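Cast an eye over this sequence plus tokens and explain the fold to me:
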Amino acid sequence: MYRAVRSPVVNSLQLRALLLRSVADSKCLCSQSQSPDDTGPGSTGAEESDAARISADNPLEAEAADHQLAASAAKSRHLAPVDIINTILSHRHEPELALKYFRRVEGRRGFVRSVDVFCVLLHVLMRSPKSKRLVRSVLDGAFSGDSGPSSSMLVDRLIECAQRFEFELELPVFDYVLDSCTQAGRVEDAVDCCSTMAKHDIMPGNIIFNNLLAALVKRNMVEEARRLYDQMVSKGARCDCFAVHIIMQACLIQKKPEEAEEYFRQAVGSGVELDAACYSIAIQAVCQKPNSRSACLLLEEMKAKVWVPSVGIFGCVIGACVKQGNLEEALRVKDEMLSSGKSLNLVVYTSLMKGYCMSGNLENALNLFDRVSQEGLVPNEVTFSVLIEGCCRNKNVEKAHEFYSQMKLMGIRPSVFNVNTLIRGYLEQNSKDEAYRVFEEASDEGIANVFTYNQFLSWLCNEGKITEACNLWGKMMSSGIAPTIVSYNTMMLGHCRDGDMEAATRMLSEIAEKGMKPNVITYSILIDGFFKKGDSIRAFDLLEEMADAGIDRSTVTINTVINGLCKVGRTSDARVMLTKFIDEGFTPTCMTYNTIIHGLIKEGDTNSALGIFREMPINGVSPNVVTYTTLIDGFCKSNNMGLALRLRNEMKARGLKLDLTAYSALIDGFCRNKDMERAHELYSELLEVGLSPNKVVYSSMISGYRNLNNMVAALGIHKKMVEEGIPCDLITYTTLIDGLLKEGKLLMASEYYTEMLNKGIAPDVTLYTALINGLCNKGRVKNAEAVMQEMHQKGVVPSVLIYNMLIAAHFREGKLQKAFSLHDEMLDRGLVPDNITYDILVNGKFRGNNYPAEASSA
């Protein structure tokens, strides 16, 4: 503790220091000068009245003191600050008289204001409980104007004066300084003051500190508030729950919920006794992330403390649960809210509607909307937006349009989000006319924007309606809506898909004319388009142009180049390009390798494909299901079932599950090899893992059993196919009819043929070949000729194989003239007879029942 001063007189060394510092620190302590009889700034004269009342018990003493003050004040006109300090110190036991003296001298002309004088006065005033209340008014006056002292300097000088004159350091004086500075609106100065106090291990009082934090946040000086709070905590200050409340709220203002939560956790860990308001802000913070689990736990903590959250907090938690797709938890919190005596408001109802819509339960969402009306609540734009989006999400666009119309009738202007949602819903159902009506209406009302147009343009281009897209583009331009780079990319993609690369290139030029810059997607679309047109030279020119424009090639661009080369049969060039790209720093993806492997398989080079597959791990790329499936399919088609099975086993060992395509490839491979036992094992395995056979699997199985002349099994597979609701296509019907004809079941084959025609499936030359072959083998030559006649009527040109089958049939029946006439008919149709034809005509040789059967296999 600082001891009381022993002498009211300053010694010579102190005098010299004070004189020098007074000159240096001659900054005003108040905003205006006063006459000797005026009170100080910010004062009402109450101080002198207080002094008078204190001395009222001894009128003679009071009068003498007053004369003495007047005399001292008169002499003070020519006194240095040190003389004023000595006079104030002489009244150290009479603080009110010291203040009265200070008021008299500070208003005189020529008075030199000194921070030290002011600090000594404050120390004297702090000595008496009665005069302490005067300190605040003195400080308020000092800080009321721009010319007041720096509060941080005042803190330093207060401490120095206490040490020099052995005052007992009264800590509340620093709180008075800090709060007066804050209340005067000098918050930056107050922050410096607080930091200076902390440097001297003087911690501000909680109320004073909280006032400063609140003032900073109110002025949007959030970062300064947080730095100050962190500084005080690091210095060991025990901030209360109100400070935590303010600083957490500041984090939410900055949209930093994670940091608000961290302040809450720190406060809990340091033992700060937090109130319900702090918990409420913490819940808001975790809900903004969102983290519904943490929010629910905080709700439970509030419940344990017998605090009832507000309706807004309950709504906040319910909304967070819905955002995270946890409708069940949202409904539980809703029940807890009702049990606590709170009523559901529109926000809660709207959140629950959204939850039901997201979970696919549109009916419950609509029921909640009915309850909103029943309870007298008025739905707002958010409510309608949730329902419009929910209805479209659940494929009930008509209901969405009802809500759209209802909100307009209520005077609520739909947002562009509502319009775009509704249009997207109609387009997903291919209801173009309805979508156009909404679009036209929104355009007339000025709601439609470039995103609305982009959405429509994208749909038209994806549907191949490029002419309509161009018309819409013209309307967008005439409406004054500027297209974005997304708009241009969409139209360029449409032109590329339409094969009109000239139009796509024109749009690239237009982008530059508009002062816009094409992006990596723009170039990728054009490069892909030129590759598909077979113009690889132009594609590579664009790749160089892209580099010259300073646009970095993305993975998409490089994969486009690799894919383009592979599609035109230049897989070897694609491999060279990939090596070049890797040398330039490109990191290939699994998709990159899959493209090359697929290209090599397509070209029949399975060995090179396997080599690329083995390179993948070396370059840090793991094969995926598509990689294995592509290879398995290739090896199955090349009749290398052993390697296909080894890849399948390796795939399983890596924990990769075979997809339907992989099973289809393996089953088809075994069916082609007439190994129906293995094929059926894979078929059963496919069912066990929860996959459903598709048309390809069923067709392969039917064909496999047909090739083994086991039509009973083939028809059994066909029955399962029908039961699964998978429609038969031409290939399936061809296989069934061919197999039945081989077994002589002409009636059943005819029934399937009629069924096929009734479904609108037109036979092709392969099916006609199977029909004629089967009829000829069973001696039904006239029926076979009737089939030939049907081919002529439908414009299907018979093949040389079909003529050979009919010529052989006529030879078997001894109708040589008819056989030779068919030969002439072949020549008239421009068909060239083959060696088999002449073997039949010249030598009478034919293969009988087995000759055309294999050739006509589906």
Remarks:
- Residues 1-64, 848-858 have pLDDT under 50 and may be disordered.
- The radius of gyration is 47 Å.
- The chain is about 70% helix and 0% strand.
